[in-house]
Amino acid sequence: MPAAIAVLAVVFAAMSADLAYRAMCPIVEAWLWWLVLPYCIHEWMHILALSARGGSQTLETQVTCYRISVRPTESVTIPRSCLVAISGPMGTAMMGVFSLPIIQWLGFPWWVNLPWLYHALFLVPLFGDGKSLVTGLRALKQV
């Protein structure tokens, strides 16, 4: 868990470290808003779901060519597995919904929040969260 928190802390620090640079560079600002921040919220929601109410206390960071994700090092109950699979995509999509009025108040078009809302697509079985959810639901059905 400390490694995952450290990774997220570094990302958040890098995002907020130089406001003047981001103000001068809209491409960096868009990249942070559309890619980095939703991804961090997605993984943070997984961490919260894994560690809530006496859950997993030790997590590992899994790095592949296409993604960085957090995983528990010990076994997780089937209901918690389903909760964790849902928490990342839906937590990020809900943040997109709740931030929509703020985005529009700031004068940005509504579609600026689409990358946040697209995180719900990670529940499709093609992606890791969707695969975990299907596996968990099948295991619940057999119990």
Shape call = elongated
Largest sheet: 2 strands, antiparallel
Q: For the terminal residues, how far apart are their CA atoms?
A: 30 Å
Count of strand segments: 2
Average pLDDT score: 80
* Proportion in helices: 55-70%
Detailed description of the structure:
With 143 residues, this protein is mainly α. 66% of the residues lie in helices and 7% in strands. It has six helices and two strands, in the order H-H-H-E-E-H-H-H. The chain has a two-stranded antiparallel sheet with strand order 1-2. The longest helix has 28 residues, at 78-105. The protein is elongated and about 50 Å long.
Outline:
The chain is mainly α and 143 residues long. It has helices at 2-16, 19-24, 26-51, 78-105, 114-117, 128-142; strands at 59-63, 68-72.
